[in-house]
């Protein structure tokens, strides 16, 4: 059997196969340049691709190029028609090629039919592309792998009146008019890049232009393209872009490299945004904002995502991934960079808390579920399934731990070395760690296990104080439970940042001038001894969440209250509040099941009272202190999850807090409810956040007063944050005004999909037992569009993720509802379907009855004749549990 035959055999295998990191081999061929010509038409776009190809392998092998949903019209080698090829299911095999040649491939594609939004597709009336991870193969046959770097030139041809703007990567080099009302623009990108960074956009837009002078004095043109009529919503994104460029120069010494940086906002997009070289394509959600239509959180989200995509220019684009298993090389690092950006510009503690909430509410569950994988996965069926919280958020935590171990200065030296060594190359996570280690002299050999080991480590802490010798001992035991992908676990290198508080709440000096110390926990069990400790201290552990672990220490209530009041690290103060809440949550679940009374003790209430009245704490931090563990997060606290009890107990505790602190919530609300001109600055954002939090607590127990406040707030507010804050309170408390204020909002905003997404989220998270029938009727709503991923995430996704108690209704209706939607979505947009399925595959310690119901729905999916590989991978892994 020839090699070609075996290739064909492989692709006609019935079930999708896993690819393994250990099977990585460099490509037999490289491509140094590719010249593309696009003749854009709705249903029949012609793509000409002329590549300069070189064989690098010693032996003469056929050339395999990936391709999907393409119609091949001709293939030429060195200008001559060539027929020695076979079309196979996932590409083309070309035989008997010379060692160096020009390959011309002409294909036709159908952008309108493309509802998967991968490759070239239409978003509204504009053409746009999404090529990461493996979308370029839907444009032409190509070596679509990240370690093949070529120089791209792109000529785009289209109707001039419909598509006055024709954009691609790099710099514009030519343009002109053609026959039949068509025109062309040509672009050249001087930086070699993998195909996943290719982009093309054609459309009619409003444009906001600006410029940025880099620190070496180069003038860069900035352009933001949005749908016509949206120019008034572009200012914040542009300001954020300029801040990003400046910040990357100052903190990382990294400068922009092309003459132009373009951002295009589109309405139909599978994720947040894409860092295509010089031509970012964004979900309009992360570009468009004005005070009337965007919340403070939207403003912050835009700043973070604009920053993230910009920072990819170095960490991702100039230095890219050797293979997709290395995704965290660019994503973990770039998330770390965008988190630092947001922290430097805003409140470090508040940003840290938000990131930790994401980990605890969602990433921990992912890491304990059927899709558990290390930040560098070892086997993958569908790459799009691995753009996960683990690769991104835990990946960022791993970078952050290196930052903690090395310190800022050495970390930056490591970054510098990384850039010097690998600029223009496709590299691995090992290469990154090697640069960090070489530049800093810090041994990271054991630390590297974070890249290959999945699961959330548990750290059990005990202590011993000896008053005679005045020594204090902290003993740490680490343990990682087996995960679906990996049974055996090894000890990890865990940095534990600690502070010790004395009886008066003062921090004890642990080294000259230092009140904290970073312990390196590297063994299964390890004890650290502190000398000259004159009284028994209270330990603050994992300051700033110095490692992505679950930790346990038997704190008394008084100790937690001390940390809440006195720790120097604001994160630790917040975390102590969470621990106190969690402690009583666990106790009350036990009490409920034993038929005993639930309690929230007075010491708890008093502790939180002093937080609420604090004049010195940042209002945003106060608000976070009152944002108690979510139902999703709460599940991580139990070995056996009782969905109903958690919902009941959590509700009881929040109501109890509302009742006991009612007057203070009212006072807090009124104190911060001063109307002034809207500014999305950090101080005002914090005040609005606390005010609306107070309103939501009032709405739980004093419906009459809340109803009044909500109605008044909506009538008088001048911004979306306050409008939505009021609606949220009406929703949480199911206030009498709810139906009216929701309808008014709908009437005001029904033409603006992005604004209506907020409304759909509220509808989907309504705490009412008939929420599902309500959601079903909203599929017919004038603003709903099943084909738009944002709408789907807002209605279907929000129900399954945020209304998790009702999603997990023991009658199985939530599971069935989600599955029905996934069946509709499977053939149309499998990538979005595969995101939405997440809560249905996470059985994580649920009861047998629910798991049975969930599995029945997964089996219904598995029986589909055309189940997409994206869903197949998740469904089969879940059913195997
Ligand atoms: N790199 C893209 C994500 C692509 C997702 C493909 N399924 C956005 C980002 O992380 O910046
Ligand atoms: Zn990214």
TrEMBL record:
SUPFAM superfamilies, per database record: Leukotriene A4 hydrolase N-terminal domain, Metalloproteases ('zincins'), catalytic domain
CDD domains (alphabetical): M1_APN
Domain Peptidase M1 membrane alanine aminopeptidase: start-end pairs: 238-450
Gene Ontology MF terms in the entry: alanyl aminopeptidase activity
InterPro entries: Aminopeptidase_N-like_N (IPR045357), Aminopeptidase_N-like_N_sf (IPR042097), PepN_Ig-like_sf (IPR038438), Peptidase_M1 (IPR001930), Peptidase_M1_dom (IPR014782), Peptidase_M1_pepN (IPR012779), Peptidase_M1_pepN_C (IPR024601), Peptidase_M1_pepN_C_sf (IPR037144)
Signal sequence residues: none
Ranges for domain Aminopeptidase N-like N-terminal: 96-197
Reaction(s) this enzyme catalyzes, per UniProt: Release of an N-terminal amino acid, Xaa-|-Yaa- from a peptide, amide or arylamide. Xaa is preferably Ala, but may be most amino acids including Pro (slow action). When a terminal hydrophobic residue is followed by a prolyl residue, the two may be released as an intact Xaa-Pro dipeptide
Domain of life: Bacteria
Keywords from the UniProt entry: Aminopeptidase, Hydrolase, Metal-binding, Metalloprotease, Protease, Zinc
Keyword Iron-sulfur: no
Annotated EC: 3.4.11.2
Keyword Hydrolase (UniProt): yes
The protein's required cofactors: Zn(2+)
Peptidase M1 alanyl aminopeptidase C-terminal domain location: 557-880
Pfam families: DUF3458, DUF3458_C, Peptidase_M1, Peptidase_M1_N
The Peptidase M1 alanyl aminopeptidase Ig-like fold domain, residue ranges: 455-553
Family membership: Belongs to the peptidase M1 family.
PANTHER family from the UniProt entry: PUROMYCIN-SENSITIVE AMINOPEPTIDASE
Name recorded for this polypeptide: Aminopeptidase N
Species, as recorded: Psychromonas aquatilis
